[in-house]
Amino acid sequence: MSYTSQPYVKIREKLLAGELSVSTIVQSHLDQIHIHNKALNAFLEVYEGEAKAMALVVDAKLKAGTAGRLAGLVVGIKDLLCYQGHGSQAGSKILNSFKSTFSATAVQRLLDEDAIIIGRQNCDEFGMGSTNENSAFGPVLNFANQAYVAGGSSGGSAVAVQAGMCQVSLGTDTGGSIRMPAAFCGVIGLKPTYGKVSRYGLMAYTSSSDCVGPIAKSIEDIRIVLNTISGKDIKDQ
């Protein structure tokens, strides 16, 4: 059975009841990545081994009753967000071999609640585009019809959710970069009120209007992720 199209809130019920494991959920999404990512070009890097190892850790936490409120949520992050020890390239070859020394606040807050980061997602170079055709690593194609663009600049993030390669993506929006690809791909994208989610660890396009926000298939999943990543951050400018 595939769990790639089910809302996280439903999956969590099964996790807490012991009817499902995080390892199974992660593998379901990795299977979708193996099938679709080569054609769609949504992920620039997949953390397969790391995601599987973390799934075992979270499964143990669930059995012990110590798991966070996002245990088992499989998340992809746009290539504009920093994740400690991982590449962050902003869709650009200028940042080849760069690895971040810290995690964006929004990313860290997901990790703190036992969400699993499965990979980083393609985007228009430095967020500058509305179709995700301007990445140095090639365009992202729409899962519904590969002749269509995915929208941008968070096109990889929207397509990854659309194709079941992750349950939720973290995108960024300056002038429509979450909302356009979400609309083009038939999923839900939320641009929060400016300042609701910390910009710390986000590679800036326009600091006075950049926002970090979630993309998902379910309004309830959007809600639970937004509640986790939002709030005051002393590191935020």
For this entry, give a set of tags.
237 residues; alpha/beta; 6-stranded mixed sheet; 7 helices; 33% helix
Summarize the structure in short.
With 237 residues, the protein is of the alpha/beta class. It has 7 helices and 6 strands. The radius of gyration is 16 Å and the shape is globular.
Distance between the termini: 45 Å
Number of helices: 7
Strand content: 5-15%
- Element pattern in H and E: HHEHEHEHEHEEH
Major sheet strand order: 1-3-2-4-6-5
Parts with pLDDT < 50 across at least 5 consecutive residues: none
Radius of gyration, CA atoms, in whole angstroms: 16 Å
Integer average pLDDT: 97
Question: Which class of secondary structure composition applies to the elements?
Answer: alpha/beta
Question: Count the strands?
Answer: 6
Fraction of residues in helices? Answer: 25-40%
Major sheet, described briefly?
A: 6 strands, mixed
Query: So what's the overall shape?
Result: globular
Describe the overall structure.
This protein is of the alpha/beta class and about 240 residues long. It has seven helices and six strands, in the order ααβαβαβαβαββα. It has helices at about 10-15, 20-40, 50-65, 105-110, 155-160, 180-185, 220-230, and strands spanning about 45, 75-80, 115-120, 170-175, 190, 210-215. Strands 1-3-2-4-6-5 form a six-stranded mixed beta sheet, sandwiched between helices. α4 links the parallel β2 (about 75-80) and β3. α2 runs antiparallel to α3 (about 50-65). The longest helix is centred in the N-terminal third of the chain and has 19 residues, at about 20-40. The model has no long low-confidence stretch (mean pLDDT about 95).
